[in-house]
Amino acid sequence: MSSSISHKIKKRNTAKDTFITPRELAKLQIDMTDDANGECGETWLDPCRYNEEGSYYSQFPRKREWCEITEGKSFFDYEGEVDIICCNPPYSILDKWFKKCISLNPDTMSFLIGVGNLTARRIEWFNKAGYGLTDMKMLKVFGWYGMSMIVVFDKGGEDIISIDRKVWYGEKELKEREQKKIEAKKRREEKKKATRERKEQEKIQKTLDKMKKEIVFNTE
Fold first, then answer.
1. Alpha carbon 177 to chain centroid, angstroms
2. 32-67 pLDDT, tens per residue?
């Protein structure tokens, strides 16, 4: 997709979160999720089903739960007990959405998201809550921006990727970084020196003022 379209998406004022997932793709995601769960999850939740014929909701294999903001059932008000959450979430509120999903404590969660939406910070949220990223698949949906991916998080599962939080630098960047450290240290030392000199001057001035007062007093 062209950079001009990317720019328009980033600059638009109103989020466009309603994208209907192709039924075949939803079924692929459901099967991936069921495999990760070992086909043990009884209750499935579609947090944004769209309608009764929604791509996910209508294809869930067992007991079905749903939310849909346009039908007055907000996902953020949902407090039921579910085994699996499987959906194509609204990208404009992903952080809030993921945190709500985690708070429901299901066994397995699966999301269809853009490749740029899977960040280290978000993976670490799931890891901290006891979920491992156990499966993922990159794919292309016609008309959708960029590449998409299905991600599956399973409670107690082992991550298929690792995260390195170290910031790596090339030789040029390392030299520049060291130079900046040296310059910053020099500025701190100069500031400390200036502060010491100012305090010494203030001390001397106080002593001189005191001596002047004593001289005036003795003269009187």
1. 28
2. 998 887 878 899 999 999 888 889 999 999 999 999
Q: Is the Cα torsion angle 8, 23, 137, 83 positive or negative in sign?
A: positive
Averages of pLDDT over each 10 residues, the chain, 220 residues: 43 54 95 85 92 91 94 96 96 96 97 95 97 96 91 96 91 87 91 90 86 68
Count of domains forming the chain: 2
> Would you say residue 161 lies in a domain?
no
Q: Which two tokens stand for residue 20?
A: 């209907």
Residues 46 and 80 in one domain: yes
What gap in Å lies between CA 71 and CA 92, rounded to an integer? 20
The half-sphere exposure of 144 on its side-chain side, counting CA atoms within 13 A, is 20
Helix axes 94-103, 120-128, angle to 10 degrees: 10
